[in-house]
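Entry 14. Structure prediction run on the chain below.
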Amino acid sequence: METLNIVDQYIDCCIINGSHYDISLATVEILKNKYKYTGNNIWYYLSENQEWVLDDKQVNLKNDIKTKVCNAFIQRSLYWDNKASEITNDINLSIDFKFRSNKLLTICSKLKDDKYILTIIKESKSFFNDK
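Output returned:
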């Protein structure tokens, strides 16, 4: 039996209902220790030289959600798609794995939408809270 890493566990939880809360938990896990929220819509990101830098209008955070978070969801989608392809003797299991893959791809497409990203950021504030 394979062991899931924590990011995959959070992403797989999004398959069930894909709530903003579930997606924000996955986002926090993927981007943890890279962002902090100090209140009043003020965000900071950890720069390459390990200094906290003001993230004006959450530009870096939005970009990381569109790239890093989305890529993590795509990788997990590919995992489920590959699992579906490996199944030869159980069509129902194969269909279930395909469904999981498609559900994650649907979430990925939402993670490219600025309005949707703002909802995820709003939901994530308390998890990145620096207080």
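The chain is about 65% helix and 10% strand.
Filed with the rest of this week's runs.
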